[in-house]
Amino acid sequence: MNMGTPRIGFMIGGAQKCGTTAFTEFLRLHPQARLPLGKEAHIFDAPDYDDAALPETIDARFAAHFAEPWQESLLYGDATPISLFLETAICRAARYNPALRWIILLRDPAERALSHYAMERARGNESLPLLPALLAEPWRLRRARGDLGWNSSLRNHSYRARGEYAAQLQRLLRHFPREQVLLLRSAD
Fold first, then answer.
1. Can you give the pLDDT at residue 4?
2. Which PANTHER family would you find in this protein's record (predicted)?
3. How far is the C-alpha of 49 from the C-alpha of 82, rounded, in Å?
4. Separation CA 140–CA 40 (nearest Å)
C-alpha cells in the first residue's frame, strides 16, 4: 500500500435497494472500518474509469472520498451496490486488488425490483408505468450494453436484471474465490 492513500480492502455490493445503506451506516460504527463520506465512491463503475490506471492512481481517486488521511491500521471499503451487477466493475476490482473481500446483500428479487422502480420514478428517471417498464427492460438493457454513463438504463432501468442473483454471483466467483465473499440476506 502507498503511504498516505487508502487501498480498498472490501466492497459492500449486492442488488440496489437491498439494505446496503443501512449496513454501511452500521459498519461505520466499527472503530477500524472506514467508508466513503457519501457511501458510494463509484470507483470501479465510473464512466471515466481508466482501465490502464495503476493501483496508486485508483488509491488517490478513492482517497478523495475521505475527510481524514489514510491510516495503515484501518480497513477501507466502498459500498457501491452496482459493482456486483456490472461485470466490468468486478473485473476492474479484481485487477486492482485480487485479495479484495466482498460483503453481498441480497433481498427478495420482486420486492427489490418494486423498490428500485419506485426510486427511479421518484428521481424522474422512469416515465413508464410499472408493467410497461418491466416489458421494456430487456430492450432498454440491450440498447445500453456497455454504456456505464450515469443515466444509462444499466443503472436506472435494470429492475428485473439486478434481481438475477445467480448470474451476478457466478460472475463474481469467476474473479474472486468463495472464501472472499460473504453473502447476507436482508429483510425489511
1. 44
2. BIFUNCTIONAL HEPARAN SULFATE N-DEACETYLASE_N-SULFOTRANSFERASE, HEPARAN SULFATE SULFOTRANSFERASE
3. 15
4. 24
